[in-house]
Input
Amino acid sequence: MTTWFTDLEISKKLIISIMIASSILTLMITMVQLYIDFSKDIRSIESRFTIIRENYLPILKQSLWTVDENQLIVQAQSILKFPDIQFVKIVTDSNKTFAFGRKQPSRIISQSFEIVSTQVVLKKPLGTVYIEASLTSAYDRLLSRVTIIFFSQILKTFIISLFIYFLVYQFIIRHLTQISTYFRRLRLDNLSQELVLQRPLMQNPRDEIDILTLGINKMRLNLRDEVIAKEDVEQDLRLLNVELENKVKARTQELQNSLNELQNFYNFVSHEMRTPIAAIQPYIRGLQKGMRCSPLDDQQLVHLNVIERNVERLLSLVNQVLDLARAETRLDTEHHHVIDLHTLILLITEQFKGLFTDDVVLQLEFAPQDFSIKASQDHVESILANLISNAGKYTQAGMIKIRTIPWEGGVQIFVSDTGAGIDAEHLSTIFDRFTRVNDNHQIKGTGLGLYLVKRFVDQLGGTIECSSVKGEGSTFCVWLPCQ
Ligand SMILES: Nc1ncnc2c1ncn2[C@@H]1O[C@H](COP(=O)(O)OP(=O)(O)OP(=O)(O)O)[C@@H](O)[C@H]1O
Ligand SMILES: [Mg+2]
Output
């Protein structure tokens, strides 16, 4: 079937199918009927030929034998009176021809009869009688029958199709249309609206349409119950959510208060510890330089240097503990500033330069553009300071290089050195708390630096990776998102 037919409404499809099927059937029946009628006409002409042969030929034989021309004419004309017989021709044995009636070029059926003398002694041919019957009236009858059958069948087909269409529309299609309109208008908030068809609905369904209507209404009621149940659950969930949110708010507030108290405590402790340590340092330097006292001997100077190193270490420890507290409590994440990365790197390298040995060359290679990072300055500073100080600490001679390049909406900061390097087996643990993996025990440290770096990088939404070859150097790559 072509698409235009499949796209039609059911009613139109039905009426077209009925008309085509009925017309083909009508045509076949008509052809059979016409064939039978035509055969009947031919048979009746043939029976006329038989009557003529049996009744007229003996008389014609007599006339030919006696050469009675008047009798021949009378006989030929009475043959012509038979229905459909149009032409009679008699040829005598002396080749004399008598022709009667009108000869037709086509649509004919003919027969010739040899007339032979039946005398016992002398059997001789007397002549030939040729008779022609016209089929014109048979064809005319055929045509008028075709016309009548054709038009009457078409009319019948049309009326029956219309009647079937009316029935189908009345019993099925109009209800289906109503059902489809109902479904088109059905929404979750009007599920109480019943499907009512334009026909009386019985308690017990009478036909398929009734069963369908009852089924749809049952489904609608089930759906409505489900929607109501779902709304109840949603309402309960909303209430629970509100309750939960309030509880979370209260807990968050409590935690915030505790954190504030903790931060205050850390600030207090570090301040209280840093102040006396800082107060000791100038006295140590004064003693080293021999101020306000007689110059110290070598043994005393060695002792004083030990005191100075340990005081510095104590100060660095206090500072790291404070950093650790910040990293664990995340209090600083609220106080973000826009930081210009290159300026900060320059500031930090300036501070650390003095700590590098003379055999170390520092190289900076910045990307042409500036990078602005929104973060707590302390955090970014801590990240850079720890990486740069490690590079300096673990590189006795060689090069320290700091490089920045733009990368995926942020910046990649490479801090590389040609120092001690790290064993491949230790690379996965260097970011753990209190992990130290260097063999040189002269180099002091607590193993907290990289742990803090990782924490701060994570808090800023960045990533950190380390690649290193033992004895050749290390590269730390930090990616931070930019504004
Ligand atoms: N640039 C580097 N070259 C070689 N080894 C390094 C480098 N950076 C870190 N390490 C190794 O990783 C370990 C952990 O480093 P981390 O900064 O956490 O601790 P630390 O430097 O030992 O102590 P601190 O807490 O004072 O920083 C170090 O002990 C060191 O063995
Ligand atoms: Mg360190």
About this structure: The mean pLDDT is 87. Residues 188-329 form one domain. The pocket of magnesium ion (ligand 2) is lined by residues 386, 389-390, 445, 449 (CB under 6 Å).
